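Model it.
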Amino acid sequence: MKTVIQVAARDSAKAWGLLVRHSPGTALPNRTFVVSPEALRALRDAGVAFVELSRDTASLGAAAGERI
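Modeled.
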C-alpha cells in the first residue's frame, strides 16, 4: 500500500537521495511524496523527519495505480 508523506524541510535533500534509490514513488509539490512501504522504512531508518498524510491515495482524488 502506498503512503503519502510530507518531508520536513531540513531533511528534504536526504529524503530525495533515499527515495531515488528505494522507491518508484511520485513526487508532489511542497516536499510531498507517495512512497512504497520499503521507502517508508528506509526513511525511518535514516532518521528523516516526515508527517504521514494518508495511506490511501484515493483520498487525493486518484484511482489506485493512476499517476497523480
